Please model this.
Amino acid sequence: MCGILGVMATTPVNQLLYDGLMVLQHRGQDAAGIATAEGNTFNLHKGPGLVRDVFRTRNMRALPGNWGIGHVRYPTAGSAYNFAEAQPFYVNSPFGIVLGHNGNLTNADQLKEEMFRLDRRHINTNSDSEVLLNVLAHELQSAAHGYELDVDSIFQAVAGVHRRCRGAYAVVALIAGYGLLAFRDPHGIRPLVYGQNETEEGTEYLIASESVALDTLGFRMVRDIEPGEAVFIDLEHNLHSRQCAQAPMYAPCIFEYVYLARPDTVIDGVSVYESRLAMGELLAEKVRREIPVGDIDVVIPIPDSSRPSAMQLAQVLGIPFREGFVKNRYVGRTFIMPGQAMRRKSVRQKLNTVGQEFKGKRVLLVDDSIVRGTTSREIVEMARAAGAVKVYFASAAPPVRFPNVYGIDMPTRAELIATGRTDAQIAAEIGADALIYQDIEALKQAITRLRPDLSVFDASCFDGCYITGDIDEYYLDAVEGKRGGKAGKGDEDGDGKASQQLVLGLAEGGQD
Model:
């Protein structure tokens, strides 16, 4: 999971991209990058850490231009410690292209071999995003009229990307001398929207992972980019769009609604906030069936993303809703962090109890999901230490039993607490008196009741059914095998950041 932005504006976009990445910071805390275009030059700055740490005044001054893209990185297939894999990525042949990608290619290894053996292109990192960039560059070369592009050839190239690439990809890219390109994989697994802003100088366009970026930056949302669709905005600010996939279908990642997206975002026409309210309502019915409601004194959410579900659950059950945990917002997401000891320490730093909400009470804790179970176990212990006499635990999502291969760095099957355990065994493992999981069909219903024609989802981390149809036991074993390897070190300057000014030109042949 990453956050991406693309802007075609009438004034310098560096501040706009910075502000947009701050809004999308929840989608990636590992690294950040901005690329802008001015004349025949791309200006690029990227580095490890949060947006506010990567960019200083001197970096912003070195990012002139009225169009550009931004990226916040959350490590998936690549290493969390190899900052050479920070995005955007750049290639100079046959056209200067800078690209940012959210998602994960499931056939990246095959494509990397093809790139070297057939397309004569060299991939310099382990990032599937660099593979995707080179596939796009090769397809643009194949579709071009000599060394000239037009709108038809750009869309033809995206169609070639769809034919070759498998997995999840939402993409923004700058093509030197031509404009801003964005496209989404044929299943629409990762979200992508665009909006516009009317100014005296002309129409401005913003493309983003989540609609909240449009809202906060003053753009009017136009619509979601459809699965398989490409949108191209030329330098005259004309917007062109075309369906480039042969058999597109809506199958968004259901975990976006559960946890990943901000609650004030709308994804594929569905309010994330309203979907979480519906999850709480449906979860309440299951709680009512499994626990005597009179045996619960208070409902307490695990902040932040479970709050809407917990609030609605409490209202349906007629039980007081209370804030029992205070969150330190300056600690990263715990299931990203390597090592159980570090995760346990982080939970204690991240949350603190409001003691009076637990002492002598039978509490129902509500979380958005349970992945490893480390956080859940620590939270139950904290509730008991604060004086809770009973601790029930409810998850707004079903048991996570399978890895996510489409851009969320979930653990191996062996690390997932739900793999090979019953609900009662998991409850015992985390120390809860009872554990209630949302049913998978109820989770889907929470979204489809808001948009009835959206009926297919990628829910592979819950049900093991991978929507692209190319994932088998051998693939999962290979992915899990890679997690045991050591990360390489990327090229870094003294402060761990990489700054480049890339002069664009047309090179002979197909190599970068």
